[in-house]
Specification:
six-stranded parallel β-sheet; globular; single chain; 260 residues; two-stranded parallel ribbon; alpha/beta; 10 helices
C-alpha cells in the first residue's frame, strides 16, 4: 500500500503532492514500482496535526480519485479518513477501501457508510486524537490491550452490519504508543496476525524508527522500515503501508524468497 498524502502538513511529505498533477505523477510512479494499493490521505494524522475538516478533505480527494480511476482503473484506491461524509463521497467517486485511523471512534456513522457500500475497511487501533494521543500511551500489557481494544471496535462494526470479511485490522504503530511499545508490538506481531482478520502495518518513516536509528529526517529512515518490513513478512502480515515503494517491494520479495 503506497502512501499518497495530499496534505500540506504530513510529517514526512507534507505539501509535495497537494497539487493534483503532482499527486497523479507520484501515484503512477508508485504503481510502476510495485504498489497494489494507493492510500490517499487529505488529513494529516501526525501528532499535533490540525483538523482541516470534511469539506476540505472532499475537495482534495474527489478529483484525484476520479482521475486516478480513469488512468489506472485496475489499481485499488484506499482513502485515509475518519469522517463518514468523506468516506461516502470518496466511495461514490470510485474509491475501493476506507482506512480509518480512529477505528470508528471519531465518527461512528462511518460504520453505516462501510456497511452500505460493502467495501473493505481498515480498522486501526488508536486513542484520543492527533492533539492528545501522545499523552494516552499507558498500557498494562500493550499487546493484549491493543488486541482487546481492536476487538471492541470490531464488535461495534459488526453490530452495524459490517461483514467480518470487510475488516482489516491495524495495530496503529505510532498512535498513542511510545518507542518501546511500538517495538513490543513488532516483537509480538504474530499475536496480531493470529486475529481472525487480515493485518495491515503502517510504520513507514515514523518517529519511533527515527528514535531507534538516531535519524531526525523521516525520509532517511528507510533502512529501519526495511527491517520492520522483513519482520512483518516473516510473521505473515498481509499489507504494508509505505512511502518508499520500490525499496520495500525489494525487501518483501527478498524476504519471501528466503522463507519460501
Amino acid at each position: 500500500m503506497a502512501i499518497i498524502n495530499i496534505t500540506e502538513d504530513s510529517f514526512s511529505d507534507g505539501g509535495l503532492y497537494i497539487d493534483i498533477n503532482a499527486a497523479i505523477k507520484h501515484a503512477s510512479l508508485c504503481i510502476k514500482q510495485g504498489a497494489k494499493l494507493l492510500d490517499l490521505g487529505a488529513q494529516s494524522t501526525r501528532p499535533g496535526a490540525s483538523i482541516v475538516g470534511a469539506e476540505i478533505e472532499i475537495k482534495r480527494l474527489v478529483p484525484l480519485i476520479k482521475e486516478l480511476k480513469l488512468i489506472h482503473p485496475d489499481v485499488y484506491l484506499s482513502v485515509d479518513t475518519f469522517n463518514h461524509s468523506v468516506a461516502e463521497n470518496a466511495l461514490i467517486a470510485g474509491a475501493d477501501w476506507i482506512n480509518d485511523i480512529s477505528g470508528g471512534r471519531h465518527d461512528p456513522y462511518i460504520f453505516n457508510v462501510i456497511s452500505e457500500y460493502g467495501c473493505p475497511y481498515v480498522l486501526t487501533h488508536s486513542r484520543g486524537n492527533s492533539m492528545t494521543m501522545d499523552s494516552l500511551a499507558s498500557y498494562q500489557n500493550v499487546v493484549q490491550d491493543v488486541k482487546n481494544e481492536l476487538y471492541n471496535q470490531v464488535n461495534l462494526a459488526l453490530l452495524s452490519d459490517i461483514k467480518s470479511n470487510q475488516i482489516i485490522v491495524d495495530p496503529g504503530l505510532g498512535f498513542a504508543k511510545n518507542t518501546e511499545q511500538n517495538l513490543t508490538l513488532l516483537r509480538n506481531i504474530e499475536e496480531l496476525v493470529s486475529m481472525e482478520f487480515p493485518l495491515l502495518v503502517g510504520a513507514s518513516r515514523k518517529r519511533f524508527i527515527g528514535s531507534v536509528v538516531n535519524e531526525n529526517d523521516p525520509s532517511k529512515r528507510i533502512f529501519g522500515m526495511a527491517a520492520i518490513a522483513s519482520r512483518c513478512v516473516i510473521a505473515g502480515v498481509n499489507f504494508l503501508r509505505v512511502h518508499d515503494v520500490k525499496e520495500i517491494c525489494q525487501v518483501v520479495k527478498m524476504t519471501n524468497s528466503i522463507i519460501n
